[in-house]
Design a protein that fits this description.
Layout: E1 21-23, E2 35-37, E3 42-45, E4 55-58, E5 64-65, E6 71-73, E7 78-82, E8 89-93, E9 99-100, E10 109-110, E11 125-130, H1 133-145, E12 150-155, H2 166-171, H3 173-176, E13 189-192, H4 211-226, E14 233-238, H5 246-265, E15 270-272, H6 273-281, E16 288-289, E17 292-293, H7 302-323
Helix pairs in contact: 1-7, 4-5
């Protein structure tokens, strides 16, 4: 799992959160401290969030925060955890003993992460990269390459698998499109991606969802993001390959075809990151890419992120610059 370096520019900016939102943990109000809307969510621990107190927002109002710091249940239920760490899954048990399984409506959900911690620039354009752990790898490179014209930051703020599977993305989208304190973030360009966390048939909320859920929830996400125009120009990054597994990459390619159709429906342009990498490394399976073992399997931090840098230079940055 990837980790996200907290940029030194994550300054403490004092200000009240939006109406109806309250800062978690009894902390004073700051832009990069998590706040949640009391009518729709609940402050719960989310171990991947680096804000003060490691707070996230449970997507249930008056929700029950489960032990472990990752999941939550609806009001009036109790948590029944299985597994541990970030792979924990939670069944929510009602007073009558009926259990609702993880990921189902009324079942255990992973606590939502927050959006980027940096106040928007008033002198440059603003860009948000919203996506999975691969995007966590290339975002700092994009930010460095575009520093002359734009402030670039990642959503969510935190490590692990980033925005995870599309069900989690849809459940948490309002939080991912807001600063930690709930201030809506409407960048000039939103470069977004989902795909690597819907390649199996298991449901681990906030980690992975079944293949069948990929397209339906991605369409909901795309429709919401398309509605941000004209203030925000959206670009969808077609998911990068799984170079070490032909079988998994076949699923990625199938999901990519669905994504292309969805983005065309909502007039969202795309950048084919999959084709870009395959053009340099050949099709999966290929355990050596950009001269590095297991590069893009699915990550490529080797040699100071040589694969990420090539992708940023040749595919991502040109598309974002053209949109600004």
């Amino acid at each position: 799992m990837a980790t996200l370096t907290v940029v030194a520019m994550a300054l403490s900016v004092v200000g009240d959160p939006p109406t109806g939102w309250a800062t978690c943990g009894g902390l004073s109000n700051e832009y990069n401290r998590t706040a949640c809307p009391s009518a729709q969510g609940t402050c719960c621990k989310m171990n991947w969030v680096p804000s003060d107190g490691a707070w996230g927002c449970c997507p249930y109002a008056e929700g029950v925060c489960c032990d472990g710091g990752y999941t939550c249940c609806p009001h009036g239920t109790t948590c029944k955890n299985a597994g541990s760490g970030y792979s924990v899954v939670t069944t929510c048990v009602a007073a009558n003993g009926t259990g609702t399984p993880p990921g189902a409506d009324g079942g255990g959900q992973e606590v939502c992460k927050t959006g980027g911690p940096l106040p928007f620039s008033t002198t440059k354009k603003n860009v948000i990269i919203l996506g999975d752990s691969v995007s966590i790898g290339y975002e700092p490179i994009v930010a460095d390459m575009m520093a002359d014209v734009a402030l670039v930051q990642h959503s969510p703020w935190g490590g692990d698998g980033g925005a995870e599977e599309t069900h989690y993305g849809w459940e948490c989208l309002d939080y991912l499109l807001s600063a930690p304190d709930g201030t809506p973030q409407r960048p000039d360009v939103l470069y977004f991606n989902w795909g690597l966390h819907n390649t199996g048939n298991n449901t681990v909320p906030g980690q992975g969802g079944p293949i069948a859920e990929y397209a339906p929830f991605l369409e909901k996400i795309a429709q919401k993001i398309a509605s941000l125009a004209p203030q925000t120009k959206a670009i969808f990054g077609i998911t990068t390959p799984q170079m070490c597994s032909a079988a998994t990459d076949a699923v990625v390619q199938s999901n990519n075809k669905a994504a292309v159709a969805i983005m065309a429906k909502y007039n969202i342009p795309t950048v084919d990151m999959h084709a870009a990498i395959i053009s340099q490394c050949g099709p999966a399976p290929n355990t050596t890419c950009f001269g590095q073992s297991t590069c893009f399997c699915p990550h490529c931090p080797q040699d100071n992120g040589v694969g990420y840098r090539w992708l940023a230079t040749n595919a991502i940055v040109p598309a974002i610059r053209a949109a600004l």
